[in-house]
């Protein structure tokens, strides 16, 4: 029996995207083979390129209570310390347009889909305002050098990005798991259970065995496949500690290194961390010495691997593969945060009071050492 749909097509809704809630519209609905309900969501005021399939858990009824919840989430997010950000030349907008969506660029950039803040499209209203500003400039008596320099810098930046951009398309069926993974780790503060039931090495080896069993397989293809799969493992082992972990997972990573000092991390971590690798691998490949033909060949194998993951997603991904972090672990995370602030000279604890620009007392430093921090 098909599950009952909570939202109708065309219904005005609210939808989580990253840590914030946005006004949206439900365009379509579908039920997966696993009988999970998904909705195609369009975010109000945003280009249709941002439309995406989301699980039902991310969608909220548009009512007074949830609108109030949206405002509270926005206030809480705005109250967090703002990170210093460079304003991209092509992202200039009028003050009114900027105030209409105060945190969309930042929240979209922080989502697990890995979108860059400079690639975030401005709402349509902002684009119109920007074009008016440009027209106004053209009619002024100001020297044209400034406008010309701006145009040239934007063009050269886009040309540069086009040269190094390598895109790996993550299938929609797997994007859902990246979003859920982000939510489970950063909001619910759970951890992947390690060692994983099915490790990265096992998944890669299973893929290789699957390809070998194909009727189209031959000895020449096998050699290439072995190189590709071994390369995936090497990339994973090299980047897991520096690029593939959320801040909340770092103490767990330290524990793993201590407990399994001689074991490759591809034999510890599992499918969701492998998927994170593929989400970030495009920029990595852009700076390799591969020529265009070789690069496209590698990308075709990666996309084929992702298709394999889609086919086997019911085996590879399960929310039961996460567990609650212990109170002791939470204490480690907090102490690690304290240590970072102390090193930066932001504050210190002296006699139980908070003071700026000093160093911590010995008891706190001793506790940090106890946890290997």
From TrEMBL:
Q: Where is this region: Disordered?
A: 70-151
Q: Name one Pfam family in it.
A: MRG
The protein's matches in InterPro entries, at most eight in alphabetical order, are given as:
Chromo-like_dom_sf, Chromo/chromo_shadow_dom, MRG, MRG_C_sf, MRG_dom, MSL3_chromo-like
Compartments in which it is found: Nucleus
Gene Ontology cellular-component terms for this entry are: NuA4 histone acetyltransferase complex; nucleus
Q: Which keywords fit this entry according to its UniProt record? A: Acetylation, Chromatin regulator, DNA damage, DNA recombination, DNA repair, Nucleus, Transcription, Transcription regulation
Q: Which residues form the Chromo domain?
A: 6-75
SUPFAM superfamilies for this protein? Chromo domain-like
Q: Name one GO biological process term.
A: regulation of DNA-templated transcription
Tell me yes or no: is Nucleus among this UniProt entry's keywords: yes
PANTHER family recorded for this chain?
A: MORTALITY FACTOR 4 LIKE 2 (PTHR10880:SF48), MORTALITY FACTOR 4-LIKE PROTEIN (PTHR10880)
Q: What is this protein called?
A: Mortality factor 4-like protein 1
> Organism, per UniProt?
Danaus plexippus plexippus
